[in-house]
Amino acid sequence: MTALDRRSLLAGAAATGLAAGSDLLGFAKAWAQTTEWKPEPGASLSLLRWKRFVPAEDEAFMKLVEAFTKATGVKVTVTNESFDDIQPKASVAANTGQGPDLVWGLFSFPALFPDKCLPLEDVAESLAKKYGPFFPSAEAYGKVKGKWIAIPVAFNGGYPNYRISAMKKAGFDKFPTDTGGFLELCRGLKKNNTPAGFALGHATGDGNTWCHWALWSHGANLVDANEKIVINSPETAKALEYVKNLYETFVPGTVSWNDSSNNKAFLAGDLYLTNNGISIYAAAKKDNPKLAEDMDHAVWPIGPVGKPTEFQLAFPILAFKYSKAPNACKAFISFMMEAANYGPWLEAAQGYLCEPLSNYPKNPIWTNDPKNAVFAEAGRRSLAAGGLAPVSERIAAVLADFVVVDMFASHCTGREDVKTAIKNAERAAQRIFRNT
Amino acid sequence: MAHTALTRPAPVAVPTRSAWTRLRASRGWAGFWFMLPTALILGLFLAYPLLKGIWLSFTNTRIGREGVFIGLENYEWLWDDDVFWLSVFNTCLYTAVASVVKFGVGLYLALLLNKNMPFKSIIRSIVLIPFVVPTVLSAIAFWWIFDSQFSIISWSLRHLGIIDGNIDFLGDPNTARACVIFANIWRGVPFIAITLLAGLQTVSPSLYEAATLDGASNWQIFSRITLPLLTPIIAVVMTFSVLFTFTDFQLIWAMTRGGPVNATHLMATLSYQRGILSGTLGEGAAIATAMVPFLLAAIGISWFGLQRRAWQSGETDR
Asked: In this predicted complex, what is the ipTM?
């Protein structure tokens, strides 16, 4: 006969998420009894996070924070900043040793200052054991030189958003699955005056993601696995020619676009195909149901390289070493990733975010609406920021400096020919990857 | 011979003054003490960051990681960097065009506002509005005005039947430069106009009366009386204007982020992008330090060219 004491009962409840959904606080209290990270007495945490795009996600997250505070007594102060402001603020905090205990930001920002991040091996291992393994790209974002310095909380799938009627009018019943068909679709859309448009401006999310897809789908890379610069290749030239052909079909103004420009244009009915998260669809469902009905999403077409080469936004969270409450930091990260918390929070995000681990319980957000399903694939299909190369402070600099975006934009606008565009990108890479 | 005893006069008891007393009575030391707080503030908040920035530019410091001295390497890389030279060109163009236009329009506005007119005070207050509005807000407003899809200008011209499609204001390098310069001018004119207006009001009306009696034309009055007497304040206001324009950041960052294809990157925005966003503090500091000679030259031109003229002291210009 198995002896059931209070502790094992609580552990069982926490592990299976019995208390999930209906009683977040009940679950939190049970979890607090069993967690291996006991917050320091009197600990309080400050968390800097990216500003939500979906209000319901923020509300669900704050409920989760509240439950954590009630269960553990650790007060968590949450501040929100826009995407572009997270990295500078985290950088200043890392440099000065003062600021938020936890930062939840974008892409590979923890790799900018790996020495300042609290090692999170134990948290990562625990999560991988329960819900894992982590997808390879998630692991790449969380680890630097084989050590976990951040936990990839979620991915944001950025996929082609298209108007179904415009696609059909352009002669396609289904969204093309290869880059050749994709170009033909864009040409057809342009011909019908229902143009496509993809950001070629300094758009941190949209610009970087689709330009890297275009580069990688042709088998080109900025650097290889050993960080050797390999951008000067025939594959890059082909990618440049391909994107220039695409650009000729775009709505005017894409070289000045930031991350919000395509949302506005699509919702206004001026744009019929672009890359974005689910936020356009979510906004359309709320304010313009007809448009929502006429739009859908697709995975990125596969290029000559013959396999998915998507680049999706990752949202890793880190804790700084200077935090006076490292255990509380780990406890909080672990708590927010527990399926009982993570599931409802992810559902509240309405498809804007998806899982970094492969074995979370199936979330209803991916099946409730077939148009959401594509976004569930982001973590599985995405490559990490470096492509072949490991995520590092240098890769973070490549993204922040828009090296790949500017290479494409300078060629598309006619400012530079193929050779010059590649040469300038190569030189920018040499500057970033130099050995000093 | 009478012996005269040469007796030493008894020493006069001079009251001894301690070093502390002497220090307290010294006017020089008093000056030193009065200047000390200011010197400390300037040293801490001005000299130290400047020197630290210059030092960083000679290191490979990254955010969160101490660097080592690498000599001129950051500058050598910048020397061969097309984007850096483009940002230098953009900064010079931006500063030169915006400053000249701001001065012309500002002076014209100041002369207008100096005349007697109804609702003078209200009009003067209204002129200040662009300067009072937070830069980021006005930049976002301009971003909408020049948006490639939703520009009010494109919309109006399309509805008037003048154009067929939207104007790609911020997508073309030249129009994008023109747009950011225009936004800077709009924002900067009130500062110059109001400051010059203050200068104009110090010119004695009797000079104008005498000139009018002597039959001077309007142009002669302006060029022989107004402009010379305004020169010192022009020197000050243009020095500030050039400094503000050269180091502008917010307008560009909010409107274009340096795009399209770096066509509107200024040295300040590039320095921020490389130093903070990319994390290469050393390189960002090198770009920022490279601004110093340009700034010194700009200040030198405005200061020595306009500030002291011999005739202002009753002598003849040489």
From this structure: 0.79
